[in-house]
Amino acid sequence: MEHNEPGATGGPPGQAYLLDNAGREASARFSALAAMLDPGTIRHLEERGVSSGWHCLEVGGGGGSVATWLAARVGPAGHVLVTDIDPRFLESLQALNLEVRRHDIATDPLPEAAFDLVHSRLVLLHLPEREKALARMVAALKPGGWLVDEEFDSSIDLVSSAYPEEVYSKTYVAMARTMDSRGVDRRFGRRLFGRLRAHGLVDVNAEGRTFMWHSGSSGVSLLRSNYEQLRSTMIDAGYITEADFNQDLAGLDDPGFMMPSPILWTAWGRRP
Asked: Of all residues in the chain, what percent carry a pLDDT higher than 90?
């Protein structure tokens, strides 16, 4: 594995992210995301034809599970560049055809027309300069190359529950308010289809997936890690009291707990 760390990225690693990789909860979050989302991600990548010899870019590699799969899929004849503003969880990846790079997709350049595939998951919705980042990702594609991006739409999930057992807790609402206050576009997943078309891609399509999160599931593990990482931020902002937070955190262990997840939109398109 090659490590390539260019110069400054415009600030300390993770400063632009509400749920940055420096938090002690990050490892649990990445494990939960991989367990819940990797099967669907891999299906989409397989359907785009990823195979031996491809050159792939993974933007915001996080815990590295998708980059590891890509490296195995493209084989010795292929190459995977995996980037992150804070690549601490990528440093241990072991593959000769995999390169880790500290990189801020919002500000740092990428090689142009270099990749058969560019993939990202749950990155752009956090970025104030998401359109510039998306333009960089499109420009990095070879002619005929595929862009696959996956983002949550959590803007419509605070509706009335269908069953009494479904819970949208005070802490979940506080987390949504915190994200809104920090410039997260919680509707960006739904916008993906239109944004890929607007950037000139062809054969654009999209699929939405949702999950029922319940006690013991990877979705609840994700909620727990996010709640714990944002605890002080939410309480200090006055969005939730400490007593309500503690009650909601304990409620995740209730065998009867359930709530629908946000919609995960996967959109894909090909550079002409």
From this structure: 84
Q: How far is CA 173 from CA 3, 163, 246, in A?
A: 40, 18, 14
Q: Which residue bears the tokens 């390169």?
A: 99
Say what the pLDDT of residue 251 is.
94
Closest C-alpha to 224, from 65, 40, 24: 24
Task: Tell me the mean pLDDT in the region 116-144.
Answer: 97
pLDDT in tens, 51-109: 999 999 999 999 999 999 999 999 999 999 999 999 999 999 989 999 999 999 999 99
Side-chain half-sphere of 167: how many Cα atoms within 13 Å? 21
125 by DSSP, 3-state: which?
helix
The pLDDT of residue 167 is above 70: no
Cα 180 to Cα 18, 153, 239, distances in angstroms:
11, 13, 12
**Residue 150 phi, psi (nearest 5):** -130, 125
Q: Delineate the domains of the chain, giving CATH numbers in brackets.
A: 2-270 (3.40.50.150)
CA distances, 29 to each of 13, 76, 233 (Å): 18, 30, 18
Q: How far apart are CA 235 and CA 31, in angstroms?
A: 26
Under 8 Å CB-to-CB from 260, ≥6 apart: which residues? 157, 166, 210, 211, 212, 213
User: What is the Cα–Cα distance from 241 to 13, expressed in whole angstroms?
Assistant: 30
Contact 30, 89 (CB under 8 A): yes
> Residue 95 to residues 43, 101, 201: CA-CA distances in angstroms?
22, 14, 31
Q: Which two tokens stand for residue 259?
A: 């709530």
Amino acid identity of residue 27, one-letter, is S
Helices 218-236 & 26-47 angle (0-180, nearest 10): 130
